[in-house]
Design a protein that fits this description.
It is a single chain. The chain is an alpha+beta fold and about 250 residues long. The chain is about 25% helix and about 25% strand. α5 packs across α6. The strands form four sheets. The protein has a five-stranded antiparallel beta sheet. A three-stranded parallel beta sheet has the order 10-11-12, with helices on both faces. The protein has a two-stranded antiparallel sheet with strand order 1-2.
Length: about 250
């Protein structure tokens, strides 16, 4: 007879879950696995709200499994570590992002590209190695293999750090990968939404010149005065765009 999820995962947890496509969240008592040899358990202090969470709880993309506990921008303080854990200790400030597992055998995993692994395991609404559903960071504690846990520096406030685990890496990675992280370069950021804000901040921190390209003229003040962008273009202003294109060609 197959064991229940509570028998496989005996550690009680509390969170907020969607029960259907309405988008409403309600309190939810569930269970997480015991701390394995390579696991890190931590008390969740903050969890960012990613737009992916909204799509997930409403089943906008299909495949949502209810009850669904969202959240993949998770930060907190370590409360327990497995006996083989090398990188973390109790009391450390840590975070978990979008993944909690992969095959660790394919070429992508060997290249530290687990996000491209065909068997990767997402932090919530996924299926873990033992066949149980993964639950995210809208909860009181989290447990994950240390390979998928990152250390949060002491000088970073946890609440502001949480969004870096999804929105942050989404912008940081391409800027680094394409070499757009050097002073004197000129970077264009299209759209000043959640990702755009982070993109401008990273690009400026790298010392580049930043132009924000947006459909909303009302965002110019925020881009220039609050985020430090060097210039602002309204993409629906064809004359302005044409002049800029000609200037950049020169």
């Amino acid at each position: 007879m197959a064991k229940s999820a509570e028998e496989v995962h005996p550690v009680k947890a509390f969170g907020w879950a969607a029960r259907d496509e309405s988008g409403a969240l309600s309190s939810f008592t569930f269970s997480r696995r015991e701390t394995g040899d390579e696991d890190v358990r931590f008390k969740v202090m903050y969890c960012g709200i990613c737009h992916t969470d909204l799509h997930g709880i409403k089943n906008d993309w299909g495949g949502s499994k209810y009850p669904l506990v969202p959240g993949h921008e998770i930060v907190g303080v370590v409360t327990d570590v497995g006996r083989k854990v090398q990188k973390f200790k109790v009391g450390d400030r840590v975070g978990v992002g979008c993944l909690v597992g992969a095959c660790h055998k394919c070429d992508n995993c060997a290249a530290d590209l687990e996000n491209y692994c065909p068997k990767n395991i997402v932090t919530y609404n996924g299926t873990y190695l033992d066949g149980t559903t993964t639950y995210g960071g809208y909860s009181d504690h989290m447990v994950a293999n240390e390979h998928y846990v990152v250390r949060i520096p002491d000088n970073l406030p946890l609440d502001a750090t949480a969004p870096l685990l999804c929105a942050g890496i989404t912008l940081y990675s391409p800027l680094k990968y394409f070499g757009l992280d050097k002073p004197g370069m000129h970077v264009g950021v299209v759209g000043l939404g959640g990702l755009g804000h982070v993109g401008v901040k990273f690009a400026k921190a790298f010392g580049t010149k930043v132009t924000v390209i947006s459909t909303s003229p009302s965002k110019k003040k925020e881009a220039i005065e609050h985020l430090g962008a060097d210039s602002f273009l309204v993409s629906s202003d064809l004359e302005q765009m044409q002049v800029t294109i000609c200037f950049w060609k020169i």
